[in-house]
């Protein structure tokens, strides 16, 4: 998963579908985060990953809120936003979780023809 792929997917969607998709990604990340609360996980690594997921959710929900308000100009351009998501996930060791969440959301969004 790379920023260009994410940007292409989001650019093909209406603002409402972008918002819905970002909410689906955020939802799926909450499920992914549950594994970090298990007693068998390394606590310092789990804390870093949970912070990363929290940061991703903050970014996703903020952008989705702007889309729901009909804002396309005062938000990060899709390519920049996609890069921010990928960099944040990589920095916190949750790139796999983000990729899985995006794939989940892609499967739930309208097919682009």
Summarize the structure in words.
- The structure is a single chain.
- This protein has 113 residues and is mainly alpha-helical.
- It has one domain (3-108).
- 73% of the residues lie in helices and 0% in strands.
- It has five helices and no strands.
- The longest helix is centred in the middle third of the chain and has 26 residues, at 43-68.
Specify the biggest β-sheet. Answer: none
Unreliable stretches covering 5 or more consecutive residues: none
Number of strands: 0
Strand content: under 5%
Q: What spatial form do the alpha-carbon principal axes imply?
A: elongated
Q: Spell out the helices and strands N to C.
A: HHHHH
Outline the secondary-structure elements.
Blueprint (H helix, E strand, L loop, with lengths): L2 H9 L3 H19 L9 H26 L9 H15 L2 H14 L5
Helix pairs in contact: 1-4, 2-3, 2-5, 3-4, 4-5
Give a quick summary of the entry.
With 113 residues, the protein is an all-alpha fold. The protein is 73% helix and 0% strand. The chain has one domain.
Question: What distinguishing features does this structure have?
Answer:
113 residues, mainly alpha
